[in-house]
Specification:
heterodimer, A: 270 residues, alpha/beta, TIM Barrel, B: alpha/beta, 7-stranded parallel β-sheet
C-alpha cells in the first residue's frame, strides 16, 4: 500500500468535506445510488462529514427548480444523518423567493450555509439582500469561482478573487468561501486578490493538483482560512493535501477548520 | 518499483516550478520509489529550435543516466527536424519522441508529422503525446488554448499503424473509448496513464478508471506523474484504490513500460 503513513492524517483526525454534491434522478428525487456511493467512498477515505449542495450551473434557475434541488439535498441529509449536511442553492435574481428559500432550508431543514453558482458575480448589487440574510442567520456563502483566461469565457459572470475581495470589503461581517481553488482557473490570481480579506475563505477541492497550490494557499490565507473539499475529485483533493509541504498541524486545521465548527453543530441540532 | 512515463525538466514560463532539475526530480523519484522516468525538456516546448532544449536535457541528466529515459521533443514543421531527431537517437541516446502540436501549431496528420511518427515506429521508438502540460482553465493569457486533438490522434494512429504511442495527462478513459476501434486495427500499441482519471465511485457505480480498463485493458495502462507540475500523491492514492491484485498492479507500475523500454533497446542500442 502506498502512502500508508501519510493516510493516518485522515484516519486519525476528523475530516470535514466542505464541497461535494448529490444528484437528482429523472423524477427530481434524490439519486439514492449515487448518494450512497458518495458516502461509501467518503467513509473509505476516512471523511466524517460531507457538506453537499445541488446547484444548477446553467441559465437562470426558477424558484421551483432551486426548491426541488434543495429538497434533494434535504433527502440526502435525512438518508445519512450525521454524515451529510446541506447547503441551500438559490438564484439571487429571484430576491423574494431566494430569501424565503434560505429561511426554509436553514430554519426548517437544518442546512448550514448557502451555495451560489455563476448566475451573478458575488459582488453584484443583486446579491446584497442575500448576503445580508446570511449575515443575519450567521451562515457562510460558498460560491462557484474561478479566474478563467479562456477566450471566449464560457462563464462570463463567474466570480474570481477580485469579486470576492469587493464583496468582503462591503460586508466585513459576511463569511465568504471562494469555491474550489483547485478547480477555478488561475489560482494564484485569486489567492493574491483575497489574501488581505480575512472574511474570505477557500476550499481546496477541484481536479487541479498543481504542485505548490496548497503551500501557496496556506502562505496567502493561512490554514485557518482554508477548508478541505473534493467537489467530485477525491483522489486529487486528498493527494494534494497529503503532498503539500506544510505543517501537520496546518493539515489538521484544514481537514476540520475550527472556524466553521459552529455551522455544523447548529445544523445537527436543526 | 515504478516506471514513470511523464516527467519534465526545465523552467515553465508561466509559473515557478520546484524540483525541476535532474537533481530535484531524482529526489522526488526516490521518495516515491520511482526507479526510472521518461523525461523531456520544458524548454523544447518553447524554444523555436527544439533541439537546443533536447541538448540541454541530455546534459542535465548526464549524472543520472540510469534514472532517466530522455524523450526528444521535435517540431516536424521546423527545418532539419529529421536530422535533429536522428541525431537525438543516434548520438544523444534519446529513447523516444514527444510531440506538442498544440504548442508548435501543426496538425498531427500533416505529411511531416506522419513521416516523423512512422520513422519513430521503424526505429522501435515510442511516441509520447501529452494531452496537455497544464490544465487549460488556469492558462496564462499567453499560453496555448488548445489541447491534444483526439480526432487527429485517431487519424495519426491509422496512418502510422506500426508505431507505439503513449497518451498521458488527459481523460484517458474517454480517449481510449474513442480510439478503441483504430487501436484494434493496428500493430503498434497504445498506452494510457491515469493522471486525470478518478478511481472513487462518487459519480456512479462505474468509475472513470474502470472505463479506462474496459476500453484499453490493464496491459495498456502505465504510470505518469507529470512531475514537477503536479503533486505525485494523487497517483499513489489511485494505485491504492484500483483494487488490483499484485500481478495487474505490477503491470501498471512497471511491466507494461518494460515492454516499451526493451523494444526500443533491442532496436536502437
Amino acid at each position: 500500500m502506498f502512502l500508508k503513513e501519510q493516510m493516518k492524517l485522515f484516519e486519525q483526525n476528523k475530516v470535514v468535506n466542505w464541497h461535494e454534491h448529490v444528484r437528482g434522478d429523472r423524477s427530481g428525487q434524490l439519486d439514492v445510488e449515487q448518494c450512497d456511493l458518495l458516502v461509501e467512498s467518503a467513509q473509505k477515505a476516512h471523511m466524517d462529514v460531507l457538506v453537499v449542495s445541488r446547484p444548477i450551473s446553467g441559465g437562470s434557475p426558477t424558484p421551483d427548480e432551486f426548491r426541488t434541488n434543495n429538497n434533494v439535498v434535504a433527502a440526502a441529509m435525512k438518508r445519512h444523518p450525521g454524515i451529510i449536511q446541506g447547503m441551500a442553492f438559490v438564484n439571487p435574481g429571484f430576491k423574494k423567493e431566494a430569501l424565503a428559500e434560505i429561511d426554509r432550508c436553514v430554519n426548517e431543514l437544518g442546512m448550514v450555509g448557502i451555495k451560489l453558482y455563476n448566475q451573478y458575480f458575488i459582488s453584484d448589487p443583486v446579491l446584497r439582500p442575500i448576503i445580508e440574510k446570511c449575515i443575519e442567520l450567521d451562515i457562510p456563502i460558498l460560491e462557484h469561482a474561478g479566474k478563467l483566461n479562456l477566450v471566449p469565457n464560457p462563464q462570463p459572470t463567474i466570480s474570481d478573487g477580485t469579486h470576492f475581495a469587493k464583496a468582503a470589503k462591503e460586508y466585513p461581517e459576511g463569511i465568504f468561501i471562494e469555491a474550489h481553488i483547485g478547480g477555478g482557473g488561475d489560482w494564484q490570481w485569486s489567492l493574491k486578490a483575497i489574501a488581505d480579506h480575512p472574511n474570505v475563505y477557500t476550499d481546496i477541492s477541484g481536479s487541479v493538483y498543481d504542485e505548490g497550490i496548497i503551500e501557496q494557499t496556506v502562505h496567502y490565507l493561512g490554514a485557518n482560512r482554508t477548508l478541505f473539499g473534493t467537489d467530485g475529485s477525491f483522489s486529487q483533493s486528498i493527494g494534494k493535501l497529503l503532498g503539500a509541504n506544510i505543517s501537520q498541524q496546518d493539515k489538521i486545521t484544514i481537514l476540520n477548520n475550527p472556524a466553521f465548527a459552529r455551522y455544523l453543530e447548529r445544523g445537527r441540532k436543526g | 518499483m515504478i516506471y514513470d512515463v511523464n516527467t519534465y525538466i526545465g523552467h515553465w514560463p508561466f509559473r515557478q516550478l520546484r524540483n525541476n532539475t535532474a537533481e530535484g526530480l531524482v529526489k522526488k523519484m526516490d521518495e516515491a520509489g520511482i526507479s526510472v522516468a521518461c523525461v523531456s525538456s520544458v524548454h523544447s516546448i518553447f524554444y523555436k529550435d527544439t533541439q537546443e532544449g533536447n541538448m540541454e536535457l541530455v546534459k542535465e541528466i548526464a549524472p543520472y543516466q540510469n534514472r532517466f529515459l530522455p524523450f526528444a521533443i521535435i517540431n516536424p514543421t521546423y527545418p532539419a527536424w529529421k536530422n535533429d531527431f536522428l541525431t537525438g537517437i543516434q548520438k544523444m541516446n534519446m529513447k523516444g519522441l514527444e510531440l506538442y502540436p498544440y504548442y508548435h501549431q501543426y496538425n498531427l496528420t500533416c505529411p511531416e508529422s506522419v513521416e516523423l511518427v512512422r520513422l519513430a515506429g521503424e526505429l522501435g521508438l515510442p511516441v509520447h503525446l501529452p494531452c496537455a502540460v497544464v490544465n487549460m482553465r488556469q492558462r496564462h493569457w499567453m499560453d496555448t488554448q488548445e489541447n491534444l486533438d483526439y480526432g487527429q490522434v485517431e487519424r495519426l494512429l491509422s496512418l502510422c499503424p506500426d508505431t507505439d504511442v503513449i497518451i498521458t495527462n488527459g481523460p484517458s478513459d474517454i480517449i481510449a473509448q474513442k480510439l478503441q476501434k483504430v487501436t484494434r486495427e493496428r500493430k503498434g500499441k497504445v498506452f494510457y496513464d491515469f493522471a486525470r482519471v478518478e478511481v472513487y465511485p462518487i459519480r456512479g457505480a462505474k468509475t472513470n478508471f474502470q472505463g479506462l480498463v474496459a476500453a484499453a485493458g490493464v496491459d495498456r495502462i502505465v504510470f505518469g506523474s507529470c512531475m514537477p507540475f503536479q503533486y505525485l500523491e494523487p497517483q499513489l492514492i489511485r494505485l491504492n484504490e484500483m483494487g488490483f491484485e499484485k500481478d495487474d498492479l505490477e503491470k501498471i507500475l512497471f511491466k507494461n513500460m518494460t515492454y516499451i523500454i526493451d523494444k526500443e533497446s533491442a532496436n536502437v542500442l
